[in-house]
Amino acid sequence: MRLEDEAIVLRLLEDDDAPSLAAAIGDDPDLDRWTRIPFPYTEDDAREFIASTEESAFVILDRSSGELLGGIGARTFDMAIVDIGYWVKADARGRGVATRALVLVARFAFDELGAGRVQLTTEVDNLASQRVAEKAGFSREGVLRSYLDFKGRRRDAVMFSLLAEDLAQDSS
After folding, report:
1. pTM of the entire structure?
2. In the beta sheet, which residues pair with residue 150?
């Protein structure tokens, strides 16, 4: 399965992606700070994730070069709620990659997964990720206290949501 726009391509993770994932994530301190991805990230971590994930997990690739830029996943919960998480490697940040990928996966969630609601959470201090959500059309709902179990500590999170009608308004 492929999702794409004029700049990026998303395709489902494959076993052969483990070395590229490990190289892209590696020992990036920002990913350690803001995500639950193991640190440092190894090929074994990548293989374990690929083998065990129950979400629709995609790699984000540059459309022209094929370079791996990041990853994004969608997990369906009860009541047709789809939760999205994403990351972008350090040298690809600030280029709109996460926003583009988020829009593509949100549309996929509504069209293919039957989502009634798409949501994501960010850490309260992760302003870059919050800007991504807002640029993709998500609405900030508020702070969920002690919501995330983050590497053995509870942390607050900002909840963002998107409804199918929000996407319809964006395309009009």
Report:
1. 0.92
2. 153
Q: Could you report the per-residue pLDDT of 124-157, keeping only the tens digit for each?
A: 999 999 999 999 999 999 999 999 988 889 999 9
Q: Residue 65: phi, psi to the nearest 5? A: -100, -20
Q: What is the pLDDT of residue 172?
A: 45
CATH fold of 2-170 reads Aminopeptidase (3.40.630)
- Crossing angle of helices 18-25 and 43-52, in 10° steps, is 120
Buried residues in 107-139 as b, exposed as e (16+ CB within 10 A): bbbbeebebebbbbbbbbebeebbebbeebbbe
Residue pLDDT, tens place only, 44-70: 999 999 998 888 999 999 999 999 999
3-state secondary structure of 91: helix
Residue 72 host element (H or E): strand 68-77
Any idea where the domains of the chain sit in the sequence? Answer: 2-170
Q: In whole angstroms, give the CA distance from residue 49 to residue 56.
A: 12
